[in-house]
Design brief:
This protein is α+β, with helices and mostly antiparallel strands. 34% of the residues lie in helices and 23% in strands. It has a domain of 110 residues: Alpha-Beta Complex (Flavocytochrome C3, Chain A, domain 1), CATH 3.90.700.
């Protein structure tokens, strides 16, 4: 038996390593080498209840913070598994040589948004890079033994699906254009939907969303697509948004806006307990609110000038270098202008608590999947979710997967790309209609524009991209409430009676359909 893993970031590597450690071979397929995966870009840290900071932290508190931060839209059973596994995951990374900041009590942990305890372990502001380096090295050991076969520079063309069961994947070499049919169960680890918002996110510019669009076209159910996280502290640079890590606020950075010419530290006034470390959806919405007040300027600043020199040197040196390099400002000496930018997609492929999708023999993990984060992700839970999700998906595959010999028909392949103009138009429509605070009128206008654009699609890839965009907007329209990252002016209250449920998007006979399902309930 050989398992096909699509994506070689943290989730994909974690799945490959888990399989290899249990004597199961895998194909590791990715558009780029692991060293260039989006996981490398993660800065702030990884959450786990290690209780090294003298705050009497407990796994139960991590569990409660995660559910509360996600406004109770995540599966509690899945979240419990995540939080219980977290300490072991961080300790294993430490044993693999990840140089977490430490003192005489063990691994140092810092504050991150939405959490009352210090539980975010970190390596300066390059945590993702360090975790990836450790996993890459471990997987290479098994690669040398023939347990992992890498297919770098290969993109997913389509799944091999018959009677709602996945029998493998068709992939294409992006250099030679050779097409391969790889049989076996498939674990998706393809990342978030950055490509739908090209140039507007903090994610890698190489994540096109084509895989998600193709999966949707083949009948794979998606969920919670309306839940798009705007990170409060980003800066626009060429081609994307530069992330100013939440670690900056965890170490003492303060948000303010000029009100009647004087600095107003609005988060500290409005939220005296967690102050600047409220969940990201709350901070982003407050920034929009205060910048629209007549007595305030329209620019919010992040003031890090009060952070001690030793902290800059030992914990935030990478962040400081980025600011100096990209915006020619030294944050240790001068406040920097920030604004919310798209950072993370809580929604994605629907999975149950064991990472099964709506198609048998197909699994998903990491940001491409709808799991753990509900309506809003806590900082420090993304790296954890990717690593744990890869492990969980691999364990489920080991228990369920069977060999098969169904082959793909190469004559069906259509590998035309989405044109830049088509992609850019979708991006413009989505970004305009799905801001931090939304309304039905704008979203209905977006639906009309997307349907008209879909009629101009020149190939299947463009048709798939349009359908995925329609699914995002229709999911946002159907959730007639405010919850987490989904905030509506026309439905400003949370409605647990009707909407404490997951949205589910399916493509039926070429038409996008949105339904709701109870949390933890299997898809019919």
């Amino acid at each position: 038996m050989k398992i096909n893993i699509i994506g070689a970031g943290l989730a994909g590597l974690s799945a490959a390593l888990t399989l290899a450690e249990n004597g199961i071979k895998s194909n590791l397929i990715s558009v780029q080498q692991s060293e260039r995966a989006q996981s490398v870009m993660a800065e702030g840290g990884i959450n786990a209840c290690l209780n090294t900071m003298g705050e009497n932290d407990k796994i139960e508190y991590h569990y409660e913070d995660t559910l509360r931060g996600g406004v109770y839209l995540a599966d509690p059973d899945a979240v419990r598994g995540l939080c219980e596994a977290a300490p072991g995951i961080v300790k294993k990374f430490a044993s693999l040589g990840v140089p977490f900041e430490q003192n005489e009590n063990g691994i140092i942990q810092r504050n991150f948004g939405g959490q009352k305890k210090k539980r975010t372990a970190y390596v300066k502001s390059s945590t993702g890079k360090m975790l990836m380096t450790a996993l890459i090295d471990e997987v290479r050991k098994y690669e040398a033994r023939g347990m992992v076969t890498r297919y770098p520079n290969h993109s997913l063309v389509r799944l091999i699906v018959k009677e709602n069961r996945c029998f493998g994947a068709v992939v294409q070499n992006t250099y030679t254009k050779e097409i391969l049919s790889l049989n076996g169960a498939v674990i998706l680890a393809t990342g978030g939907l950055n490509g739908l918002f090209e140039g507007m996110t903090t994610g890698t510019t190489q994540n096109t969303s084509d895989a998600a669009a193709m999966l949707f076209s083949q009948g794979v159910a998606l969920s919670n697509l309306e839940m798009i996280q705007y990170h409060p502290t980003t800066i626009g640079i060429q081609g994307k948004r530069l992330l100013i890590s939440e670690a900056a606020r965890g170490e003492g950075g303060r948000l303010y806006i000029l009100r009647s010419g004087k600095p107003w530290y609005f988060m500290e006034e409005k939220y005296p307990e967690l102050k600047n470390l409220m969940p990201r959806d709350v901070v982003s919405a407050e920034m929009v609110t205060v910048s629209s007040l007549p007595e305030c300027d329209d620019q919010v600043y992040l003031d890090m000038t009060g952070i001690e020199k030793s902290v800059w040197k030992t914990r935030l040196s990478d962040l400081r270098e980025q600011c100096i390099h990209y915006i020619s400002l030294d944050p240790a000496k001068k406040p920097i202008p920030v604004s919310p930018g798209i950072h993370y997609f809580m929604g994605g492929v629907w999975v149950d608590k064991n990472h099964r999708t709506s198609v048998r023999n197909l699994y998903a993990a990491g940001e491409c999947a709808c799991q753990y984060h509900g309506a809003n992700r806590l900082g420090g839970n993304s790296l954890l979710g990717a690593v744990y999700g890869g492990q969980a998906a691999a364990k489920t595959v080991m228990n369920e997967s069977k060999e098969n010999d169904i082959k793909a028909d190469r004559a069906e392949e259509n590998t035309a790309d989405v044109s830049p103009a088509f992609a850019r138009k979708i991006c413009e429509i989505l970004y305009r209609s799905l801001p931090i605070v939304r309304n039905e009128s704008d979203m209905n206008n977006a639906l009309s524009e997307l349907k008209a654009l879909k009629n101009t699609a020149e190939n299947q890839a463009e048709m798939n991209r349009a359908n995925l965009a329609l699914a995002v907007v229709q999911s946002a329209i159907e959730r007639r409430e405010t919850r987490g990252a989904h905030k509506r002016t026309d439905y400003p209250e949370r409605d647990d009676d009707n909407f404490k449920k997951q949205t589910v998007a399916r493509l039926q006979n070429g038409k996008v359909e949105i339904t709701f399902k109870e949390i933890g309930e299997d898809l019919s």
